[in-house]
Amino acid sequence: MRFKYPSDGSQLDCEVDIPTGMRTVVFGPNGAGKSTLLRLLAGTIGESPWEATYLPQTVYHFRGSAGWNLGLGLNAEQAARARHLADRLGVGHLMEATAVSGGERQRFALARTLARPEPWVLLDEPLAALDTQDRINVARVIVEAIGDRSAVIVTHDQDAAVILGQIMVVLIDGAVHQAGPIHEVFAQPADEAVAAAVGLGNVLDGIVRVTEGPLCSVASGGSAIWGVGDHELGDTVRVMFGAETVTMYAGTPPSVGSARNSFIGMVTEVRPVGRFVEVVLDAGVPIVALLTPGSLEALGLREGVPATAVVKATAVRVVPS
């Protein structure tokens, strides 16, 4: 689909394919045109191509109780679903309240939006202003409530993108720079603008196989990756760590110190990123490391040579998928 706004395309001029039955995250810096794109899809500007339920970034809360606001525009069945979602979002006890905080107002609006039956769900920054644990809890509710419907979710936050998304569209200055599966966009940015926007480098899918205090071990592509996260055995998760947290060695070193994560493989790509260089290691899973040109030269790393990547468990975050 082609999107242009206003007529001269000065704010947004892009073409993007948004798949059905999946959660697509539109990601990018502030002012990239993300909310404008979502408003076009919702029909608040122009005419919507879809039948959709829409949560704007700024939600409205009218005079009256929170419960009265929750039920606006819903029939009896939908209102009951909204109350259930409000309970799960931690605000169900505030139904009679006439004064609620901004975060509570956001959760009531989210419950009302998700309770509607439309086949498309459009959410603008649904995890904004929440701490890490709240984000995970709210994200679980969002994903379960969306179910097998199609969704477009706007965010500028890495964690929100990884937790909520399946497909990622990177929007910069009103244009799409890259689109694809979440892990591919993080591991293989199409250009320096995308690399600067997404930043993270490594996002891997896996299943929790071992738990040990604040840490858990995740099976991903034949590797066991230790990271920080509170999960149950068998949970489907995503593993996240920055390319700058990866230490590279040429060949197979005799010792990697206290680091729990060691990946042995072959260098498949070396690419410049500004004043630095990203090295991609194929170790059954792709591992991306950020190095200085001097370090790259000293290590003798180039495509086709064996190498080892090491990451401390405390640098790895494990979040729900």
Descriptive labels:
single chain, 321 residues, OB fold (Dihydrolipoamide Acetyltransferase, E2P), 2 domains, globular, alpha+beta, 5-stranded antiparallel β-sheet, 6-stranded mixed β-sheet, Rossmann fold
Give the overall average pLDDT. Answer: 92
What letter string, H or E per element, gives the SSE order? EEEHEHHHEHEHEEHHEEEEEEEEHEE
N- and C-termini, Cα separation: 28 Å
Task: Tell me which CATH architecture of the largest domain applies here.
Answer: 3-Layer(aba) Sandwich
Which overall shape is indicated by the principal axes computed on the Cα atoms? globular
| Main sheet makeup | 6 strands, mixed
Range of strand content: 25-35%
Which CATH top level class of the largest domain fits? Answer: Alpha Beta
CATH superfamily of the largest domain: P-loop containing nucleotide triphosphate hydrolases
Q: Unreliable segments (pLDDT under 50, ≥5 consecutive)?
A: none
Structural account:
This protein has helices spanning 34-42, 66-70, 76-88, 102-115, 132-146, 158-164, 182-187, 192-198, 293-299, and strands at residues 2-5, 12-15, 23-27, 52-55, 120-124, 150-155, 167-172, 175-181, 201-212, 215-220, 223-228, 236-242, 247-250, 261-273, 276-282, 286-291, 306-311, 317-320. The model has no long low-confidence stretch (mean pLDDT 92). The strands form four sheets. The protein has a six-stranded mixed beta sheet, with helices on both faces. The relative contact order is 0.12. The chain folds into two domains: 2-201, P-loop containing nucleotide triphosphate hydrolases (Rossmann fold), CATH 3.40.50.300; 203-320, RNA polymerase II/Efflux pump adaptor protein, barrel-sandwich hybrid domain (OB fold (Dihydrolipoamide Acetyltransferase, E2P), Beta Barrel). The two termini are 28 Å apart. The longest helix is centred in the middle third of the chain and has 15 residues, at 132-146. The chain has 321 residues and is α+β, with helices and mostly antiparallel strands.
